[in-house]
User: Fold Aspartate aminotransferase from Chlorella vulgaris.
Amino acid sequence: MSVGVSRASSLRVQQASCRVGRRHTIKVRAAAASRLAGVEMAPPDPILGVSVAFNKDTSADKLNLGVGAYRTEDLKPYVLKVVRKAEERMLAKAENKEYLPIEGLAAFNKATMELLLGADSPAIKEQRVACLQSLSGTGSLRVGAAFIAKFMPGTTVYISRPTWGNHKNIFSDAGVEWKEYSYFDAETVGLDFDGMLADLEAAPDGSVVLLHGCAHNPTGVDPTQEQWVKIVDLLQKKKHLPFIDSAYQGFASGSLEQDAFLPRYLVERGIEFATAQSYSKNLGLYAERVGAMSFVLADSDAAQRVLSQLKRLARAIYSNPPVHGARIVSEVVGSEEMFGEWKGEMEMMAGRIKGVRQDLHDALVKVNPDKDWSFVLKQIGMFTFTGMTPAQCDNMTNKWHIYMTRDGRLSLAGLSSAKAAYLAEAMADSVANH
Ligand SMILES: Cc1ncc(COP(=O)(O)O)c(C=O)c1O
Assistant:
């Protein structure tokens, strides 16, 4: 039985009699109030808290469209076949569990740089990349934020409005000031390109600009390549440092190469940048916490010095990264056969999400033909950003047992074709009546 807060505190001050067995009654003095009694309860996480609430719901209709995690058509978690294969090979090799170097597994570092920048990138050849294996996307961003706090004091990080729910926490906790730039136009359900350029123009020269490499979370709206070119022109003119959050490489288009347009273009333009990579989504390694924090710099001397400081920061936070996920990535990327299989599975996952996106759109048109639902098809990646208000989102959960974040984001990776009509009915009801 859980003890409520008020009952717990009354227990602290009262002397309780406690019966032990049938014969002995002993006097127990409850513990004094905790020295941490003043610590307030933190709010539940806006994304991961949704999964906790979902797990408690007993309805047969329930759907978890909160967290961005890929599910099969049966709505089961999916372990990529190529990951299982890599793990079998790893088991056969019976490798040891010794500490990795602070910067991570060398084969992983090579693979991750090549995936992002291309195997024959001049930045890699000229050893201008400071690459630190880190704890997936979040941990990589956090080390990057710590680096900014220490070596770029007073610099503001500009983040898109809206953005992934954790970005603000990451920079705030590292003591880095952040401000927002315009990104989403609710009217057109598209990019507010002019607003974005105006805000980045107005930012002090030399600011850090956090950019989603592809499949912007939560909006599913990316700049076109022509728009990226203009954005990069401005970043260069203003001497801003681009910081690319690359959490969905392969998930936007189904192609690893196409989704790496931005970092490769920055290399082509000779612009220095920072980047945080994650393998949670594209290899389904959510719980393995594998990713990388890198700086692509003008020369190898700068890269060596920056890497040494990234290592120093990581050493004091978590010492060195976990090995299992890093071995999987390097096995998959290091074998031509497995790399090809991975690409196939990624296309399959991206394709399934595109399929349910179409199903949802068609079902919405059926249930309410008078409303324009075309935004569902325009957006890309794992999510659809519906523009639903918090009250409408609450109706989705309370009445329809559909769990989602209260910013109106739905993860289509957690939807099946079979459930598309149910979701459409719930959305149409919530939009019309709340
Ligand atoms: C935009 C963005 N960045 C980073 C992450 C980090 O994810 P992880 O820490 O699981 O790699 C996510 C996860 O949802 C994300 O959406």
Summary: Residues 98-322 form a domain with the Aspartate Aminotransferase; domain 2 fold (CATH 3.40.640.10).
